[in-house]
Amino acid sequence: MKEIKNQKDHAQQIWPVNGSGELTEVLAGDDKKPGLQCRRLDTFDLNRPPKQKKMKNGWMPERRTASVSSAGGLLKSTFITYQAIKVAANGELVVIITAEDEAEDYLAKFYSAIKTEESPHFGRDIEDIASRILVVDVSGSGAKLYESSERRDKRSPWIDQMIAEVLTHENKVGFVAFETASRLCHGEDNTDFAAAIAVTDHVAMALDCPCVLTHHTGKGQARGKVVDQYSSRGGSSMGDNTRSALVFTKVDKEYKGIRQPIASEEELRSGEIIEIAHVRSSFGPLIPPYYILPVEGAGPAPALKVLESVKRGGSDERQLRKEQLADREALLDDLLIDHIEGRDSHRPLWAGFFYNDKDAREAYLNGASRDAVTKALARLVEAGKLILKDAGKGKSKTYHLPGAHDAPKINSSNTDTEEADY
Predict the structure, then answer these.
(1) Alpha-carbon separation of residue 208 from 159, 290, 348, 408 (angstroms)
(2) What was the pLDDT predicted at 341?
């Protein structure tokens, strides 16, 4: 490829793909507009297997744009930094163009990613990524991808300046991320998004790499947990014009997720697990959804913990649920013992205390149900970890720690209790 010496030279050129799949330079005419590219498909073309477009990291399309959409605060930018580390570690240059966070904010994200033990990039040799990540900070400048709402067909001059600068680096470009569409567009209707993606596609072709455009989901989609290519806020052309799309959604009581995350009971109850679903792909198969959990980072920014998952409805999920049930039961048993041990002088627990008091179950037992507490107390009595004392008809039964108050141990057959009286 001809070396580009300055931005003026670059502004007069485009790089389409020729029949061999290699980049070819096309000079603009006197009117400064590139010539129309036409290609006749001959018998040689039609007889050979077509070249498969590459999808970097499984979801970023070669020489085209992918979208990443989520509600605010679901760590889109942090996710981009993790993708950047993976690509930079393979020797490629990553460019992050941010109109939202400052460059210093990204430094905090990268630091937490490589210094936090629960992060998949913990312990990464910084030599693997040093000098291969370029943050272009246009925050606060009002920079847009195209000139104006009246001139959507004209990309902003700084785009060509950025391309010229990136071309001076010797590393091949891995991908370019644009953060975010709402700040880099003049509006959020179909024509705005179509114009923006025309610009990011131009960048992708000029630098021979994927581009990523982040955006927010609409309020209705976020509240309704809509997970598809049209989850992005504003016009539907975001989903139609990008070649690949990821959607971030919180996993909680209302939305269980496409797959079942493998996590602890505490993590599942936290409502902080985030599903990343690949909902559109023009050049290859969809990758399975995966799950991340924000954790406290080594620096001021949070880090990400990646969770495994299993397909719903299969034997793996059934086995996982058995294991999770066993974990929940063991946790509840421990919480009951801890509660009784923490009572003044190890005072016994009278039957019905947790059954009648939902707030107490929330405070001491992680919101366990009445039935779960009944079964847990029976298990503890059966295992000899608690002693059930029956004071007689009309009097409350009590649960004691072994040796406390010299409570006599009774037969396990007497541990069967009425639903409301454990």
Answers:
(1) 15, 28, 72, 79
(2) 80
